[in-house]
Amino acid sequence: MIKADFRNFCKKHLMSLSKKSNFEDKKTVAMLKREILHLKSKNILLYCPMEIEVNIYPLIYWLKKQRGVRIFIPYIEGVSFKMIPFRLPLVKNKYSIFESKKSLFYLTKIDTAIVPCIGIDRDFKRIGFGKGMYDRFFANLRFRPNIIFVSRKVIYSKQKITDKYDIDADIVLSNGCKLKRGINDRILSDRFYNIWSDCRY
């Protein structure tokens, strides 16, 4: 119940930001570019954003121009998804999420996964929309790519509310802020002020 309450809190807060987040999204996209270049990623799993998620279409179009980079996005199948190459045109699925048309494709070992989240807990684990699709997808991989969570704002639960199967991140990027996990599960920020002042649950 606590997890569901936190998820609803996150959704409500992010919906209030969705119409004024263009500038902040640009900052997050710029940070993603730097991380991808730093990691030298060539095979990257991205996502097609919904209204309350960071708009990463500018990142996708930038990556399309980079030599040797392959972009993949989720294609939902049942309770999980498969990874398919990003191709236009995009079509809306039953969840109103854009995706490329299904194609025959053999799984490539991705270097980096950019994963949307609406919140994290003290274990640096993801709170999503509650379908568990990303958790199932990563559980079936035989390798672990670099995982970067992105959100329009870091909304943090000081309690442990996630489950063992929930995925965790290497870093979290949000609104010009970069977070990573420190010693003893401390969460470290590149900002000098208290990032939790108005987004702690």
From TrEMBL:
Co-factor requirement: Mg(2+)
Known EC number: 6.3.3.2
Annotated keywords: ATP-binding, Ligase, Magnesium, Metal-binding, Nucleotide-binding
Annotated binding of ATP, by residue: 3-7, 126-134
Amino-acid positions noted as binding substrate in the UniProt annotation, renumbered to this chain: 53
Catalytic activity: (6S)-5-formyl-5,6,7,8-tetrahydrofolate + ATP = (6R)-5,10-methenyltetrahydrofolate + ADP + phosphate
Primary enzyme class: ligase
GO BP annotations, alphabetical order: folic acid-containing compound biosynthetic process; tetrahydrofolate interconversion
Gene Ontology MF: a single term: 5-formyltetrahydrofolate cyclo-ligase activity
Superkingdom of source: Bacteria
UniProt record similarity statement: Belongs to the 5-formyltetrahydrofolate cyclo-ligase family.
Protein name: 5-formyltetrahydrofolate cyclo-ligase
